[in-house]
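Can you give me the bound-state structure? Components:
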Amino acid sequence: MIFVTVGSDIPFDRLVRTVDRWAGQRDRSDVFAQIGHGGWRPGFIKHSAMLEPDEFTRRLAASRIVIGHAGMGTILSALQHSKPILVMPRRGALGETRNDHQLATARQLMEMNRIRVAFDDDELFDSLDRIDDLTADDPIPPHAEEGLIRALRDFIHAPMP
Amino acid sequence: MSGSVTYRTPRVLAISSGGGHWVQLLRLRPAFAGCVVSYATVRAGYRVDLEPGADFHVIPDGNRWSKARLLRSALVIAWLILRLRPDVVVTTGAAAGYFALRIGKWLGARVVWIDSIANAGELSMSGQKAGRIAHLWLTQWPHLARDRGPQCFGSVL
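Here's the bound-state model for the whole set.
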């Protein structure tokens, strides 16, 4: 399955519309989308407004590829399960989020080779045509980098001033 | 006993709003080894992410631009901190974490802000404000670190 998620209850119609149009034109029945509340409803792909955290994890784990917004919950969850992930950043100017922080995150993580990014609808449609070629990377470690853990641990156990 | 130093196991409150903030908080868990740790976040369903029996609290989600909800969230967080009396408050954001830092510090805890890895271009607004409060003020992006803070020791990734 291809697991699509807008990452929260706030809709991301541009993403869902493009995936639905692609799945319809290519006759792909292996797509499921979590689409949020109150947005555009897909005509072709299977979907649900929200998923409880345990069902979200179950569907993610059972999927082969994740497509989502460029939120860190979505990205980290996919990477922890070694799923290839393609994201499209939400844009502040289009009212999809408050600002363009997803754009900055997506660019940085793309440079680090962690994720694939489609920056607009056309790019997303094209990327979807090549989606089956994506392969899983090695899973990321289950925890944060050691330097960050150590800094935090040292601070917690430091003698009271 | 003369000359002995009493050492109490640190009490830690790890608190964040939902989504990516929570996923990042979970990835910091090895830092809480040897502590009495309580977790607080905005969805009851997140309990499944923790080991059975973990001390888990649900707080109202204040991240929806509503003054009334923000106030309610702050009150619940204040009550939680009064009951738990943590030595250290650790947060990955966002609004809930900022409240917890302010209230925690006011009640004598040492407080840590770890700005979300989602803020790769600039610090979040609450992250900038947290710099004036946090005893330990961290960004996860080296290019955002400054001499006067925030510091960077690595990321959750």
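A couple of observations. Strands of chain A lie at 2-5, 31-34, 46-48, 65-69, 85-88, 116-117. Chain A touches chain B at residues 7-8, 52-54, 57, 71-77, 79, 100-105, 107-109, 114, 140, 142-153, 155-157 (CB under 8 Å).
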